[in-house]
Design a protein that fits this description.
4 strands; elongated; alpha+beta; 5 helices; 2 domains; about 110 residues
Length: about 110
């Protein structure tokens, strides 16, 4: 009995996955609806790559404004977008932030 139940579950799961895909008639009735993921606009995220020396000093960092040195730019990004930083192996990491956030961070602030 257990094997029959398992076989029935597998058959219904396979049927379920086939039934999820829209038919050609459904696609024709609602053009663009089923292709939304393909035609979705690209995100406005910017990836700011950071590389570190073995002693943890910033070796290289992207999108740095001319008014700041590498360490200052990294500290500013950490202060504002620390939750959006992702560490990678080999002394690397990156911030994934929106273009609007990047422009706001690059704008000089009076003290």
């Amino acid at each position: 009995m257990a094997t029959t139940d398992a076989a029935e579950k597998n058959a219904s799961a396979a049927t379920l996955s086939v039934m999820v895909a829209p038919t050609l008639d459904e696609k024709a009735a609602a053009p663009g609806l089923y292709d939304a993921a393909v035609s979705a606009p690209a995100t406005d995220d910017v990836i700011i790559h950071v590389r570190f020396h073995p002693d943890s000093r910033v070796w290289e960092i992207a999108e740095r404004p001319a008014a700041l040195d590498k360490e200052q730019w990294f500290k500013l990004l950490c202060a504002r977008f620390g939750a959006k930083y992702q560490t990678r192996a080999g002394g690397r990491g990156f911030f994934r932030i929106s273009k609007v956030e990047l422009e706001a961070a690059q704008t000089p602030r009076p003290h």
